[in-house]
Amino acid sequence: MKFFKTLLFIILFPMFSAGQEKAYLPGEKVNYSINYGVVQGGIATLEIVADTFKGKEVWHSVLLGKTTGMADAIFKVKDIYESYIEPESELPVLSIRNIREGRYTKYNEVIFDHYSRSDSAILTSDLTGVHITQKGIHDILSCFYYLRNHHLQDYDGLKKGDMITIMTWFTDELYPIRLRYLGTFEIKTKVGRMKCLKFNPVTEVGRLFKTEDDVTFWFTADKNFLPVRIRFEIFVGAFVAEIVGYEGLKYPLELKKKDTNQ
After folding, report:
1. What is the distance between the alpha carbons of residues 123 and 18, in angstroms, rounded to a whole number?
2. Could you name the CATH architecture of 3-244?
3. What is the pLDDT of residues 133-160, one digit of tens each?
C-alpha cells in the first residue's frame, strides 16, 4: 500500500518569486482524517517547528500518516516524512523518509548541499550514495511550503488547464511532477466552507491509478494556501483526506457562509 507516499507526490512544485510574505510560520499544524466512503481508515498530521541542524537555525517539517481502526488491524501503515529547511532559501538541508506499510519498512536520509557547486546540487543518501542534481532542488515537504509561498500567492495569473512540470527528489531518484490547474471552487469541510484552488496532479497509471487524473487537490484561496482536501480514485475505490483541525496558522482561515460549487 503506497497511499501516504502518493499523497506526498501531489503537493509540489518549486517556482521562484522573491520578496513575498510567507504563507506560514513555525507552529503551524494541520490534522486530517482519511476516509474510504463513510469509514475512517487513517489520520495524518502536518506540522512545522523551529529547530537546528548542524548548529544552524532551520524549520523542521514533519508529515505523519497512519491507519486507524479496522484498517490498522488489517494492514498497518505508519509513514513519517521529515524535512529540515533553510528559512532564507527555503531549500532542504536534510530529508528523512521512515515508512512502515504492513511488513515493508524503509528508512532513508538524504543530505542536500546547495552551495559547494555553482552549477548543481550534491545529494548524499545513506542508501545510494552521492548524486549530482540540478540547482534549487527540493524534497517533498520543502516543495510543499515553497509552492505555498511562491506560486499560489499569484494564482490570479493561472488559467484553467495550465500545466506546471517540475522535478523533485523522492525515493532516491528524480521524479517529475505535473500539476494541472482546474480553477477556484467553494467546498464544505468539517471546519467550514471555504474558497479553494483546485488541481489535478497528473498521476502515474499503473498499480494504483486507472487514469492520469485520478487525484484531485484543494488549497484554500486565502493567504494560508492550506491543503484542505485530497481525493484519490484508485482501483479499489475513492479515498478522501480532509482537514479536521488546525492551529498556529499565520493568517485566520477565511470561511464562507454559503456553498457555490464543488
Report:
1. 25
2. Beta Barrel (2.40)
3. 999 999 988 888 888 888 788 888 899 9
